[in-house]
């Protein structure tokens, strides 16, 4: 018996870099198993062809419907701030009990044990680390986990699939 594993990929999608990175990660996820289907919003041309027109209600309804039918959300947490759409999608997933795996690859998190970096936190405007919104991070952690690399993400997805099989 095959179990349906529908994943929602929440990520910023407004630059060529975003679009390419999203497609790359989703390709790796899809290669994990034929049991996986991934909804990547940028592939939904009905609402995300930026040369066409889709109003806010069309976008909200289409993406929310996909979030609600998903078994797992993958959320890209990188950027100056967590993308507003991604944060909204995380909120919907949390409210519906849909687990979330957040991918946070920000390199400024490296060196967390470096005494100079830690000491610099005491000096105004010398934070060597990146701040992310703790409310949104809390929603992810309450019903999922945060990983810091693509390889960790793939392992976490495989673990999720295995748990669903057991």
TrEMBL record:
Superkingdom of the source species: Bacteria
GO MF assignments: 5-hydroxymethyl-dUMP N-hydrolase activity; transferase activity
Keyword terms: Transferase
One record GO biological process: deoxyribonucleoside monophosphate catabolic process
Name of the protein in question: Nucleoside deoxyribosyltransferase
The UniProt record lists the keyword Transferase: yes
InterPro entries, A to Z: 2'-dNMP_N-hydrolase, Nucleoside_deoxyribTrfase
Matching PANTHER family: 2'-DEOXYNUCLEOSIDE 5'-PHOSPHATE N-HYDROLASE 1
Organism of this sequence: Enterococcus florum
Keyword Transferase: yes
């Amino acid at each position: 018996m095959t179990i349906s594993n529908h994943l929602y990929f929440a990520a910023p999608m407004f630059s060529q870099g975003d679009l390419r990175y999203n497609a790359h990660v989703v390709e790796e996820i899809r290669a994990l198993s034929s049991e996986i289907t991934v909804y990547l919003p940028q592939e939904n041309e009905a609402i995300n062809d930026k040369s066409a027109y889709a109003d806010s209600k069309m976008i909200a309804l289409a993406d929310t419907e996909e979030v609600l039918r998903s078994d797992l959300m993958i959320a890209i947490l990188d950027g100056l701030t967590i993308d507003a759409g991604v944060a909204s999608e995380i909120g919907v997933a949390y409210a519906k009990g849909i687990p979330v795996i957040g991918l946070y690859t920000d390199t400024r998190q490296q060196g967390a044990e470096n005494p100079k970096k830690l000491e610099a936190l005491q000096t105004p405007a010398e934070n060597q680390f990146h701040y992310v919104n703790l409310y949104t991070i809390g929603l992810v952690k309450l019903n999922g986990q945060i990983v810091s690399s693509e390889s960790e993400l793939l392992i976490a997805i495989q673990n999720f699939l295995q748990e669903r099989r057991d």
